[in-house]
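[Meeting: bench + compute handoff]

Bench side (C.D.) handed over the final construct sequence. Compute side (W.E.) agreed to return the predicted structure before the next meeting so the bench team could plan truncations. Sequence as handed over:
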Amino acid sequence: MTGTPDAMTADPFNLDDGQRRRAARVVASKAHDAADCGLLLAVLGLSPADGLPAVDVPAQATEPTHLLGRRPHTAQPRRR
């Protein structure tokens, strides 16, 4: 056998978040419908949430904009 001792003792079914995300997306792209997708994900030990990208919320995003020295965004058009 070749490989490092860690590779031989590691659990081959322990996937990192990126691998789970890609696997769930491949399953979703090949499924016939939502029920088929759910069944396939369950059989593989995945959940629909595994296919969603991780969302990193910056600490500043939780602060009100007036505290950051910026005006809040308005949906009004600019006047010339």
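W.E. noted at the follow-up: The two ends are 73 Å apart (CA to CA). C.D. will use this when planning the next construct.
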